[in-house]
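Side project, low priority. Logging it here so it doesn't get lost.
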Amino acid sequence: MRDVRYKPFFLLATLLVGLAVTDSVGSEVLDKQTAKDDPRPIVIKSKTLEVNDKTKVVTFEGDVRAEISVKGDDFVIECKKMLVYYKNPPSQQQKAEAETKVATGDVRFNRGQGGVATAEKAVYYQEDEKIVLTGRPVVKQGKDSVEGDKITIFLEENRHIVESLGDKKVRAIIFPKSEKR
């Protein structure tokens, strides 16, 4: 059976882990303190950005597009709305520590080296290092694809669970690779 590797593809979701939540409101956030080996900034664009220190939520809304480069691999996430829940408000000395990130509405992950995941909702749980895709989730790599009602990706374990509800079944389409002679 072919070894399918999705872990690097879903590192895109971790783009929000390093997100620096600022006190200013704008349509673009730059974080120049991403991974040490990745000097390129995280760029998140949206029609609106709201920071609510009382509820500890940052809301990006309207044609949200987040771009990141992780170890030379480029990722883009697009959705209608993105919420970032954080533990404490940012200060001059430290970034806000994000706990959970939620992307909703026509969520689409694109990997520069190939691969696409789509869903109506994607939730990244930082503490558990997992992403849960719901709302007709589909993951495609080349011609291969997998779909179900819920796809859970455990980033640290490089493990994925695809589930369907009721009498439905999960569906995987895998094209055999031809051997070069």
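Brief comment: The radius of gyration is 17 Å.
Revisit when time allows.
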